[in-house]
Amino acid sequence: MGDVTSQERHRERVPGGGSRPLGGAGSAPPDAPGTGADRGSGRPGPDDGSREREQPQDVWPVVSALARAFDTHGEAQGMTREQQWTLQVLKLSEETGEAAQAVIGVQGTNPRKGYSHAWEDVHAEVADVAITGLVALARMRPDDAADFLGRQLARQAARFPAAWRPDSEPSPADGGQAPPSGAPYRA
User: Fold this and answer.
1) What average pLDDT score do residues 49-70 get?
2) Contacts of 14 by beta carbon, 8 Å cutoff, 6+ apart
3) pLDDT above 90: percentage of residues in the chain
4) Which of 32, 79, 94, 165 could form a disulfide with 74 if both were Cys (CB 3.0 to 4.6 A apart)?
């Protein structure tokens, strides 16, 4: 979902204005020392000051605008609401597949492509999945998407009581330690 396609993110600029796929069979992982994920790829790096737009503080106005734009396009194509929703969910599946492809590329498990992706690519693809999901929800529930998502989030979080307890042990994502392998699950 962006201006840069997945394939473009995975290409490296070469002298003379051309490009070639990043990595390849037998190549070093993209995040190996001296092979920075953004070096020579033509992608903006974190410190190059090339941000085109300010990041939105609240995602819902942007998501709603995208949903309206896609709805307008679908209506112009003569599609029913249900057809548009179906295609949006299929797009969500496509984005999920691209995230999976990026993980395979990070691991270098495709012998034909080798190490073709960096974790930054996985992050971008997962963000695309989230954005596409939010747009799908906004298209299906234009009047209450944010509230509906909030209720669903609360329902899911209630299944994991430790996530709601302020005195709970920190998760690995919060800098805590993961339980030892084989440790019983504590809810």
Assistant:
1) 83
2) 20, 40
3) 54
4) 79
Q: Where are the beta strands (DSSP E) in the chain?
A: 11-13, 19-21
Contact 145, 98 (CB under 8 A): no
Tell me how far apart the alpha carbons of residues 92 and 70 are, in angstroms, rounded to a whole number: 14
Give percent of the chain with pLDDT exceeding 70: 58
Binning pLDDT at 50, 70 and 90, where does residue 160 land? confident
Q: From the centroid of its chain, how far is CA 143?
A: 25
Q: How far apart are CA 103 and CA 118, in angstroms?
A: 8
* Interval 3-55: pLDDT, tens: 444 444 444 443 444 444 444 444 444 444 334 444 334 444 444 444 556 77
Distance of alpha carbon 75 from alpha carbon 95, whole angstroms: 23
How wide is the angle at C-alpha 132 spanned by C-alphas 108 and 6, nearest 5°? 35
Cα gap 126→92, rounded to integer Å? 11
Nearest Cα to 62, choosing from 134, 147, 141, 153?
134
Q: Is 28 helix (H, G, I), strand (E, B) or coil?
A: coil
Give the C-alpha separation, 80 to 87, whole Å. 11
